[in-house]
Amino acid sequence: MAVTAPGGPTAAIESVCLTVPDLDRAADFYRDALHFWPVGPRLPCNPDRIALLGVAPECTMRSQTMRLGAQTIELFAFDPPGQPYPTDSTASDLWFQHCAIVVDDIVEAVAGLNETEIRPITQGAPQTLPPNTGSVTAFKFRDPFGHPLELLAFPPGVGDALWHAPGADLFQGIDHTAIVVSDVDSSARFYEALFGFEPGGRSTNRGPEQSRLDGIADVEVDVLALTPRGAPPHLELLGYRAGRRRARPSDWTSRDQAITRILIAVDDVAAVTARLDPSWPRHRGTWDGAEALALQDPDGHALIVRAAL
After folding, report:
1. d(CA 42, CA 37)
2. How far apart are CA 122 and CA 139, in angstroms?
3. What is the pLDDT of residues 146-164, one digit of tens each?
4. How many alpha carbons lie under 13 Å from residue 37 in its C-beta half-sphere?
5. Contact by Cβ (8 Å): 90, 221
6. pLDDT in tens, 65-78
7. Co-location of 108 and 199 in the same domain
8. What is the CATH number of the domain that holds 208?
9. Do 189 and 212 share a domain, yes or no?
10. pLDDT the model gives residue 208
11. Using an 8 Å Cβ cutoff, are 121 and 180 in contact?
12. Bridge-partner residues for 47, per DSSP?
């Protein structure tokens, strides 16, 4: 067991961190194609970040925070860079993680994206899913570096009230980040016990719309929402019953571009550490001067746990 006891401190998802090969090009893409705006300059990272991530000290790292609405992503670029994102990745691989971006008009948003360097995952037009999923309309694609992303449009009365404010921009913010897991219930226990995330809506998604959305034939996937403090964004667990479901390769390094990290702010890092089984791998240090912990969840998804500022 990764976690020794139920319970745990409340926590908030502060950001999702993407590893990119070219910081300037990535920041320009997210600004121009998805309407994110930079927060502060593009600067070399503090040495404590490099140490916490387990990167060799001779490597350098730059980052750029990008904001959309009230949510942020952070772009990490290492020199030398790691391996590129695997070109044969699918939506059911266990390293898959996407950010779901809410849009006001998904047809207009996709039309604009199709003029950029994206690579679609979804087959054809945006897909409107059945009522058991909330009748949301979605479109999945990859950025120029291979990272999967999703556009979401909510019908009236569905989703967070934040996404139904009058006069919304075309690109509104990040609703959730979703990770593929080998066992939804086991992963839910990990996040509930370690961070106090609360289970929300659950569904089993199948049918032609879901297959076209994921680019996987005859797909069937269990979806469970986990709500942290201060959502959105929240976390979604995706348990595919069909598809390749490949595990994260053991030779990946912290600099590889398929490594996406969730930055989680907690009240007490020591309490999180105490909840972990003593044998569970973790690295303690600081992140921008705050007490921090780097670890992986049961399927290898990378987490940065930082004391709330």
Report:
1. 12
2. 6
3. 999 999 999 999 999 999 9
4. 5
5. no
6. 999 999 999 999 99
7. yes
8. 3.10.180.10
9. yes
10. 96
11. no
12. none
Q: Which two tokens stand for residue 198?
A: 């609360």
Taking each helix axis as running N to C, give the angle between helix 106-113 and helix 23-34, from 0 to 180 degrees, rounded to the nearest 10.
Answer: 140
Spatial contact of 227 and 197, defined as CB atoms under 8 Å apart: yes
Q: What are the structure tokens assigned to 232, written together?
A: 């959105």
Instruction: Give the residue numbers spanning the domain of 229.
Output: 97-240
Q: Work out the number of other CB atoms within 10 angstroms of the CB of residue 51.
A: 15
**20 Cβ contact list (under 8 Å, min separation 6):** 26, 75, 76, 77, 145, 147, 257
Which among 304, 252, 299, 264 is positioned nearest to 96, based on CA atoms?
Answer: 299
pLDDT for the residue numbered 5: 53
Task: Tell whether 91 is covered by a domain.
Answer: no
CA distance 178 to 94: 11
* Among 289, 159, 166, 307, residue whose Cα is nearest residue 233: 159
The number of C-alpha atoms within 13 Å of 183 and in the hemisphere containing its C-beta is 7
On whether the CB atoms of residues 221 and 236 are closer than 8 A, the answer is no
Please state the domain count of the chain: 2
